[in-house]
Amino acid sequence: MGIYVRVSSVVGRKDGVKLLSMWIAMLVAALPVLTPSLFSASSWETSLFSEWEPPTARHGALLDSLQKTRLHETEPEGLWDPPDSGGWKPCTRRRDESSLPAFTNGYLQVFLEGGLNQQRMGICDAVAVAKILNATLVLPHFDVNPVWKDSSSFADIFNVDHFLNTLGFEVNIVTKLPPEFEWSTREYYATGYRATRVKNAPVQASPEWYITNVLPLLRSSGVVAIAPFSHRLAFNDLPDEIQRLRCKVNFEALRFVPSIDNIGNILVERLRKSHAWTVEGDDVGSSKYLALHLRFDKDMAAHSACDFGGGKAERLALAKYRGVVWQGRVSNAQLSDKELRDKGKCPMSPEEVGIMLVALGFSPKTHVYLASYTVYGGSARMDFLHNLFPNMVTKYTLATAEELAPFAGKASQLAAIDYLVSLHSDIFLSASRGNMHNSLAAHRTYLNVRKTIKPDMNLMARLFAHKNLTWPEFRRSVVEGHKNRMGQVALRQPTQSIYTYPAPDCMCTSRRSIAEHSNLDMDLQEAR
């Protein structure tokens, strides 16, 4: 469609420029309607008005070398095999009768911030704290994330009936407060100081802290709200009963609502059945796939404070974003890009992830499910990865627009779909450290010890910085460096999270019932 602007000789030059500017402004305003793909959040297309300079390959020599040899190589034997479980299996206590006291000390509320997986951990901690205090837990409230703007509630994401039924013999849980406490809302606590709100719960607080500081208030007022509540319960020196309760919440009680569960299962089925290619020697008759969590959105890129090759425009844009979202409270911003990379603090770019996967042995035929919300930089960055793995799909390419319509604008619900597809993948890899990787690594270990690749960020940073490495040297270093980072069961060490390392707290290596050898490590009778 052409747009012609005629500036009459009768009209002065100034008026002509004004008229031309008006037509250009109208064209720009119409672009989202005329070419919606340029502005779609559900694709990785580059915005027409980019705030960064399209980058060239940062590791061009490696890309050139691998392309010359890759097409003539076969995948290494055992690439898709799961790691040895070592005999570890899920081991949580099953209750056939209620262990609940005849009364509780009051109602406990928690307000959870963050994304899907941070809230998931908060739910587990809330149930555990309610058990410690002998409190009745009110279904946790989800705060609106300032970045994703998602107002999804607990009931929008997790199956409430299943949650209540699974924990019915463990903890008293209600969906809402009784009428006499209906005043205790998120809005009430946002308007000023409130005596029934606990704001000073320390990170990884001990059970004793809650018994000393929260229990008296709970008993005297009948209701207590704790906010903030992220990471507010310790991982060490807890009774076995409490640790296993956290496991039960995380891996058994938290199930997604049917709408999310159904679409997740549909996508998994399409991934496995819609491709003619299968792994050589596979007798299942369905495709294997690798799920890749590529956390490379603007939020992650800005918070990392790393340089991703988008030039001065990108650096200024990300610095401005940090100032708006975190008001300058980003410690990484004080370090140089080299210092950040040397410390392994930079998420891998799509280009780097692709090179790493090729080094590990994955062929161009590999089917990759991309679990990502948006990719900062659009197609200019994604092209590096897509060229290496052309059989790459997302929920947007596997599902129809009608199927995904109920989840539009709901970042946490979309993340839940990615979580399900990743959970059931043959191999999972997350390109950045964070809650998504930790939650899925633990869940996959708990369910069936599936291959979960944990990139060694420090090693990869050193290898990518070493510009004189040949491709065979680079590949050999990647393979050797990740032999023990393939999802093998690793026992949780002191200070490590039970939500990342479920063994030995959530798992055991014998068939004995956990109830036969479970003993409380501390006396909680004061709370009962």
From TrEMBL:
<dbReference type="InterPro" id="IPR052272">
    <property type="entry name" value="GT106_glycosyltransferase"/>
</dbReference>
<keyword id="KW-0325">Glycoprotein</keyword>
<keyword id="KW-0808">Transferase</keyword>
<comment type="similarity">
    <text>Belongs to the glycosyltransferase GT106 family.</text>
</comment>
<keyword id="KW-0294">Fucose metabolism</keyword>
<protein>
    <recommendedName>
        <fullName>O-fucosyltransferase family protein</fullName>
    </recommendedName>
</protein>
<keyword id="KW-0119">Carbohydrate metabolism</keyword>
<keyword id="KW-0812">Transmembrane</keyword>
<dbReference type="GO" id="GO:0016020">
    <property type="term" value="C:membrane"/>
</dbReference>
<dbReference type="InterPro" id="IPR024709">
    <property type="entry name" value="FucosylTrfase_pln"/>
</dbReference>
<dbReference type="InterPro" id="IPR019378">
    <property type="entry name" value="GDP-Fuc_O-FucTrfase"/>
</dbReference>
<feature type="transmembrane region" description="Helical">
    <location>
        <begin position="20"/>
        <end position="39"/>
    </location>
</feature>
<dbReference type="GO" id="GO:0006004">
    <property type="term" value="P:fucose metabolic process"/>
</dbReference>
<keyword id="KW-1133">Transmembrane helix</keyword>
<keyword id="KW-0472">Membrane</keyword>
<keyword id="KW-0328">Glycosyltransferase</keyword>
<dbReference type="Pfam" id="PF10250">
    <property type="entry name" value="O-FucT"/>
</dbReference>
<dbReference type="GO" id="GO:0016757">
    <property type="term" value="F:glycosyltransferase activity"/>
</dbReference>
